[in-house]
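To: structure desk
From: M.T.
Subject: fold request, one chain
Message: Could you run this one when you get a chance? Sequence is below, nothing fancy, just the single chain.
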Amino acid sequence: MSWRNPFRTLALLTLILLAACARMPAGVGIPAAEQEKAAASFREWLAAQSACPCCFDAAATVTFKSWIQSGTLTGFAQAKEPAHLKLVALNPFGQPEVMLVTDGRDFQLVSVPESKVYEGSVRAKAFAKYAPAGVRPEHAFFWLTGKMPPGEWRIVRAARDEKAAGYWLDLVGQDPELRHRVLFSPHEGVIRRHLVLDDRERPLVDVRYEEFAPALKSGSCKWPGRIIVETRAHRGQLIISLSDWLTAPLADKDFRLELPSGFERRHVE
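Reply: Done. Structure tokens follow.
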């Protein structure tokens, strides 16, 4: 895998080189009483999210397949609620080769082989054009841990999954033009799939969560060990595997990069 194009690396490291639309999931209609029961279980789960750890430090493997190229990146990921994220890709000798840090407002992308630092706002065109529609950079922590981004969520529809994996819930949040469709398993207490739909109910992004494990030794909070991402805008598939979780609190300083003085800095508009 070549790192000569740092913004292609950025795309890979931030859930960007993704896939064409998957088939829209179908649900089975259910009585009003069952809809209310499913909605109540989901609201309880939402309220319990506050008991989950605020941070994680984990080994990360990113496998991507597309019509352009395929490959696997290994390294580690660190995140802190609500918006801090650090992703580090290592070379075969275990040395950092590409590093990305963001606080949800600004970012730094470091290409070690080039001795260059690209930095700017997450709203910059060079950064924003890679971000999947419907996924805000400041919510990366929640997408990586299978949680719902913060804010008020209104449930507008509930249906039973065809394979009895749980309930499909249609949610409206802060952006009224987008609808979130989640496959929620009350029995497991997890979201197994999360789609963002546009105002014509076409999927913009489709995220599947698998291989859940407890985030804490006690409690019901579970985090996914395998995340599969697809979008309408790009062809390919991105699989993120997280393991060896550590959930000790992280400080803001843990997301600052100490760079050699010889690195060239480039501001991205």
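Reply (cont.): The CA atoms of residues 168 and 183 lie 5 Å apart. Let me know if you need anything else for the meeting.
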